[in-house]
Amino acid sequence: MAVKVRIPTPLRKHTGDKAEVAAEGATIKEVFEHLDRQFPGFRQALYDQDGTLKRFINVYLNDEDIRYIGGESAPVIAGNVVSIVPAIAGGIRS
Questions:
Q1: 26 lies in a domain?
Q2: pLDDT tens digits for 15-27?
């Protein structure tokens, strides 16, 4: 059974404008690999050329930041929800 992956608006161009997709895998990394097989080019939106997650991409597994639960090696099970959240910066400098 699959996990749900919530896709932020800036990345929906890679998923045919879908806000949520299903993916399979035992870890976050495997889920992202499966997404790239479903939607070729998706990986490039998440990873730098050296293969690390881009620093402005935050990933949550059931509302927990994966950086604190094993990173891309964090285990996932059927029914989990993975949320991809791009960091937002900006504001007014005084």
A1: yes
A2: 999 999 999 999 9
